[in-house]
Design brief:
Number of domains: 1
CATH class: Alpha Beta
Bound molecules: thymidine-5'-triphosphate
Structural class: alpha/beta
Radius of gyration: 18 Å
Amino acid sequence: MANRDPALTPPTLVLASASPRRRELLARLGLPFTVRPAGLEETLAPGRSPAEQAEHLARAKAQAVWRETGGWVVAADTVVALEDAVLGKPRTPEENRAFLERLSGRAHTVYTGLALYTPGGEGRSLVEAARVWFRDLEPWEVDWYVRSGEGMDKAGGYGIQEKGMVLVRRVEGDFYTVVGLPVHRLWTLLKEVGYPLA
Ligand SMILES: Cc1cn([C@H]2C[C@H](O)[C@@H](COP(=O)(O)OP(=O)(O)OP(=O)(O)O)O2)c(=O)[nH]c1=O
């Protein structure tokens, strides 16, 4: 699709998310978009794997907003899985501390589900995984991070893109999947469904 009319403005995407990180990442692509959080109650379904859960929630958010707005709707959901446990957003600083103590010195998997609805109501979704290794954290480092408050609105109780960068020693997979929006997968999905990227 190299010879598109340069005067053609791509249609506005609707980002079905209240996450400032997703907003910032999407903004970096330079595509026009508006923000409309889905306001869904994010309930964990016991029978679903963490990967299925992330994809299902992303799809549910995109679908809910598409029903309200139509158009091109994008949504995502991030889940942190430590062996059999799923760590959501900590409800209290104490819970944030407990999450970090569990993550310390170990590897976990971050799953981010991504969903796209087209103006015609076609829903596409996928899930991307990244593996993250935490350093061995000293008790004072856990205190320092919990005190910063940064982890409170984030799955797993940390943000790799902010102060949490010093907690992590290695990432295998897409960095942006850990932050909450696998941007390269979104790009490819948009290409696949014929959204005019350029
Ligand atoms: C692991 C990790 C998560 N996060 C964030 C991304 C998401 O905002 C949040 C996971 O919660 P989500 O429920 O996926 O998203 P949200 O409730 O913040 O926003 P919305 O549902 O409206 O889209 O955790 C980081 O910012 N950095 C990280 O390193």
